[in-house]
Design goal:
The chain is an alpha+beta fold. The chain folds into 3 domains: 3-58, no CATH class; 65-195, no CATH class; 202-304, Endonuclease, Chain A, CATH 3.40.960.10. The chain is built from 13 helices and 14 strands. It has a 4-stranded mixed β-sheet, with helices on both faces. A 3-stranded antiparallel β-sheet has the order 1-3-2, sandwiched between helices. A 3-stranded mixed β-sheet has the order 4-5-6, with helices on both faces. The longest helix has 16 residues, at 259-274.
Amino acid sequence: MSGFDEAIAAVARDQHGLITAPQALALGGSRRMLLTRVRRGILAQVDVDVFRFTGTPLSWEGRVLAVVLAAGAGALASHRTAAAIWGFEGFARGTPEVTIPRGRRYRRPGVRSHESTDLDRCGTRRRSGIPVTDPSRTALDLARFVSDRRLLRAIESARRLRLASWSELIAVLVKHARRGRPGIRRLRRVIAANAHRDEITDSDFELLVLALLREHGLPEPVVHHVIRDADGRLVAELDLSYPRRRIAIELDGGVHREREVFERDRPRQNAIVLDGWIILRFTWATFVDRPHEIVDQVRAALRLAGTVSP
């Protein structure tokens, strides 16, 4: 065996017996050298630039990795394939599914391909040697194609396997939320309906409302804006706000149930109002049961303050 054969075999051992033409080039070889080994029966061509050592059986994982490698830099196993790789309940090994950056084309029979404009926001992991979307992004991708019930089943298995938490799912929701982004509404709805209030921190609640406003195309609020009096003393730190329009959004999470906090909030709120602010207060129950009220009232406040809302 030549030095080149040993080098590509070493790479292939960690790739389910696969080697790509760019990898061969980096090792001092060429595509012609790979094709010579195809003619000799040492390699089999799996895709345009992907080859497999014939002595290595092509497993399902190998098929998926071959698709990811052939799709090019930045491609990731995703959606139902990613769910199967992570071991989400209810998702079996099936047709390879891959996501690639928008603007690139990859179409093959027996492969589901997706283009994405926000892969740069996606956490990338490697599982069984396969580049794959992280578990929380996988849940978001699934939300476009599966029912609420099936999505919840996937999320619960991810949480049980300690692959994702409610907070991590919320962070992914916020990171990707925008008007028209597939999957956002369903993932938000499933989180709201199934995450117990005691499992959601006040910070999580703020992020969920931020995602809701992004989802509906409203202007981006500021998180934790600080109001001080003329002497520089702290008056309030607002959950969400539009400081230039003096609109405050206060969210009554778990901490607001405490009597001491409730009593302290009232003079604080009066001070904010007397300083010329509009205050909107929303509870967890409103977010879960009537999220449209939050959107409608924030939009109305923006219009009242002279902001043209989308």
